[in-house]
Write a structure and sequence with these properties.
Elements (H helix, E strand, L loop, with lengths): L14 H6 L23 E2 L8 H14 L7 H14 L3 E5 L2 H12 L4 E4 L6 H8 L3 E4 L11 H7 L4 E5 L10 H11 L4 E3 L7 E2 L2 E2 L6 E5 L12 E5 L2 H10 L4 E3 L2 E2 L10 H10 L3 H19 L5 E3 L13 E5 L7 H10 L2 E2 L26 H9 E4 L7 H11 L2
Parallel strand pairs: 1-15, 3-4, 3-5, 6-9
Antiparallel strand pairs: 2-10, 7-8, 9-10, 11-12, 13-14, 14-16
Helix pairs in contact: 2-9, 3-9, 4-5, 10-13
């Protein structure tokens, strides 16, 4: 009997646009007023997945097909984990199927219990991971220049009920890791960094992933480095790597021994093979992002009322995104500018608005009150992220700039 799929894929699906937008069909991208946000096939999305030449991947895929080793730590998993650690200049890496599961494993292994200090200015997955792990997010305001958790406010929020800190390297910009380390050491609490945006970022001492007890990367399609989906947990010791390794495969040691209560967070062989190929190209991806960043800075500097974040100082940047702040001197509100851009096929995004602390499942917490988070509230109401991806042409970038002018 031949299997016949029950889902018919319509011929009119625009697969090019589907892939460009990270897997969201065009008919699902509608504005709050109901207008289609993709008026033509030349729409510019806020990001576009960077992929290597397909011919480089095909021999690896054929090898996987031939071997029938699809998961459970095959040779491409071992190769990718080893090569990734070398590229990132970190000693211990555990590959996982996505960053959310990576956070869950790191939080579990960290020993955090009860209340954990975190930022309201992030993707909702940050706080969802805490909640799913049975922890209680306590929101701390951010720094206006870095958009990362403010160490001064962090210290003010510390008390005997706090059992950990979950900061975010927002937009790939490093947190004040030294101040956070001092606070964590003083109060004897672990630190797990959500480093989803921070692939390849370095400070003067090396990779920023070396900070904290754990750092968790995302390899989602929207990130600087992607394996379609995926992620990694960066560990400080061989012992913690072994623990995370066990947790990501149900706690199984061998055929007859289960040591820990774990879950399934393994990364499959296809994604690991893709990761091996992507490592050959990621430096070029980052270089081209840097060129786009520089052009934006030169051209937007001439537009009154639009403010850019200052470039991160020292080390290596990855240019994950390009946020602007729409200030009172600009003739349009942030939302009006966003709608203008979308009407002309430029899909800018309000990252991050609303704040996590304004969402229904978090807004009733005392720490979520707007008066406790004045900087995050102000930034959230004015921020807009412009298209940023390695293939963004100068012509398309100029199209964005022209729309920002009046």
């Amino acid at each position: 009997m031949t299997y016949s799929p029950s889902i018919d894929f319509p011929a009119e699906v625009n697969w090019a646009a589907f892939v460009r937008n990270g897997g969201i069909a065009e008919d699902r991208l509608v504005g709050s007023r109901g207008e289609t946000e993709l008026p033509h096939d030349q729409s510019l999305f806020v990001t576009r997945p960077a992929l290597p030449p397909l011919h480089e991947l095909m021999p690896l895929l054929e090898d996987i097909w031939s071997s029938r080793v699809l998961s459970n730590d095959g040779k491409y998993h071992e190769a990718f984990e080893r090569e990734l650690a070398s590229y990132l200049q970190v000693p211990h890496v555990v590959l996982v199927s996505n960053a959310t599961l990576g956070l869950l494993l790191a939080l579990r292994d960290s020993g955090m219990r009860g209340k954990v200090l975190t930022t309201p200015f992030s993707f909702v997955g940050t706080s969802h991971a805490l909640t799913f792990a049975g922890l209680d997010p306590v929101f701390v305001d951010i720094d206006a220049d870095t958009l990362n958790i403010d160490p001064v406010r962090l210290e003010e929020a510390m008390d005997e009920t706090i059992t950990g800190i979950l900061p975010v390297h927002c937009f790939g910009r490093s947190c004040d890791v030294d101040s956070i380390a001092v606070i964590a050491d003083r109060h004897r609490v672990p630190v797990v960094y959500d480093a989803a945006h921070a692939f390849g970022v370095c400070d003067e001492g090396g990779s920023i992933l070396r900070h904290g007890d754990y750092a968790v990367l995302s390899f989602h399609a929207t990130k600087v480095f992607n394996t379609f989906e995926g992620g990694a947990v960066i560990c400080r010791s061989e012992e913690s790597k072994r623990s995370i390794d066990l947790l990501r495969k149900f706690g199984i040691v061998d055929e007859t021994h289960v040591e820990l209560t774990g879950l399934n967070a393994k990364l499959n062989e296809f994604q690991c093979a893709l990761g091996c190929v992507q490592l050959r190209h990621v430096d070029d991806y980052i270089y081209r992002r840097g060129q786009i960043d520089a052009r934006y800075r030169q051209l937007i500097a001439e537009i009154p009322g639009l403010r850019m974040l200052a470039p991160a100082s020292g080390g290596k940047r990855n240019h994950y995104s390009f946020p602007i702040l729409v200030e009172p001197g600009y003739p349009l509100s942030r939302d009006a500018l966003m709608h203008k851009l979308r009407a002309h096929g430029v899909v800018a995004r309000k990252y991050f608005s609303p704040l996590i602390s304004d969402l229904p499942m978090y807004r009733d917490r005392p720490s979520a009150a707007a008066h406790n988070l004045p900087v995050a509230q102000r930034i959230s109401s004015s921020i807009l992220c412009l298209p940023m991806f390695p293939d963004l042409s100068e012509q398309d970038q100029q199209r964005v700039i022209s729309l920002l002018h009046h």
